[in-house]
Each structure stands twice: as C-alpha cells, then as structure tokens.
Amino acid sequence: MTPAAPDTPSPAAVTAFLRGIDRRARLFAEVQAGDEASARHALAVVARVFASEAGQWPIAEWPRQYWRLLLAAPSMRKPPVAGPAARLPGIARLPVEARAAVLLHLVAALDDADAAGALGIGTAAYQARIRDALPLDALGQPDVDVWRAWRAAAEHELAQATEPEAPTAVPARPAPQVRAHSPS
C-alpha cells in the first residue's frame, strides 16, 4: 500500500507560512549571503519554488523543506563576510557550513533534527558543527558566553526587523528550478 499524497495546500496556507517566517528568513538570508540584494533575490526565488512544491510535503515538514531550499540557493554558499556593516558580525564571519548551522538554530529556530535535515546531515554532525563554530574558552571548552552573545544579537535583530511592506504572495508563474544542495 502506497501512502496517500498530501493534499494540495491552499495558496493562502502557503502565503501564511511564508509570511510567518519572513523576518527570520530575511535575517538568515542576509547573514548567510552577506548582502541584502543577494538575500532578497534568493528569498524571492525560494518563495516561488516552495509555493510550487509545498504540496509534496505534510505541513509539519514545511519549515525543514523551506530552509533546505533556501540553503540550496547559490548565494547561500558565499565565503564569510567580515566587517562592521555585517549583520550579526560574529556569525557572519564563520565558514559557510558553520554559519548555516548556527543560523538554523538561532535565527530559523529549528530544532536539531530539523536543522540537520535542512542541511542534509545527521543530528550528531549538526551538533558538531555548532560546537566547532564556537571559539574555545580558557578551559578549552566551547565558549558558552559567545553562544549567549550570538543568541542575544540574533534576538535583538529579529525584534528590530520590520514587517514586510506587502504580504508575500504565492506567485502565479511557474517556479524556476533550484537544485537541492546540502552545504557540507
């Protein structure tokens, strides 16, 4: 017996989902891509792709699938960006894979299993990326004070983020193809 295909979601459900994650997605994309223009472009493409593919997954899987699609965008694999103008500069200067792992936790607010799934890796490998992203403290352990500072900075940026000017709409035209790529 084959499992039944999920019902085709209503455009309103997809729009509500995209609107609900908009602030997190904008911050995530800008820090991961390193610039606002690349982030905006990736978000627009991923919104179209997600809207066209959302019916493949149960709604409970939408967050993992959305972030997987976003990470597949070429601009999400840029080298670290350092500089005073970068948002979340401590995170922005991390290598691509570590930056994505940290952002999935602190900005996207995914649990370890969903974050690992979005990256296409196992949970233990995801947790290792988080540990490896942190500098070591005087005792040679991951510095939890740095983690707390990153969390506070992410929460501050999310709290300061403005609402989108217009609701994200489900596009009527066919979506361009984005190849799934797990940043490893």
Provide structural commentary.
With 184 residues, the chain is an all-alpha fold. 55% of the residues lie in helices and 0% in strands. It has helices spanning 11-20, 22-33, 36-53, 62-72, 89-92, 96-106, 112-119, 123-133, 144-160. Helix 2 crosses helix 3 (36-53) and helix 4 runs parallel beside helix 7. Residues 1-5 and 166-184 have low confidence and may be disordered.
Any descriptors?
184 residues; disordered C terminus; 9 helices; single chain; mainly alpha
Secondary structure blueprint with pairings:
Elements lengths: L10 H10 L1 H12 L2 H18 L8 H11 L16 H4 L3 H11 L5 H8 L3 H11 L10 H17 L24
Helix pairs in contact: 2-3, 3-4, 4-7, 6-7, 6-8, 7-8
Largest sheet: none
Helix content: 55-70%
Query: N- to C-terminal separation?
Result: 35 Å
Please state the average pLDDT score: 86
This entry's quaternary arrangement is single chain
Structural class: mainly alpha
- Global morphology: globular
**What Rg, in angstroms, do the CA atoms define?**
17 Å
Strands, total number: 0
Note the total helix count.
9
Helix-strand pattern: HHHHHHHHH
Strand content: under 5%
* Weakly predicted, low-confidence segments: 1-5, 166-184
Structure in a nutshell:
55% of the residues lie in helices and 0% in strands. It is an all-alpha fold and 184 residues long. The longest helix is centred in the N-terminal third of the chain and has 18 residues, at 36-53.
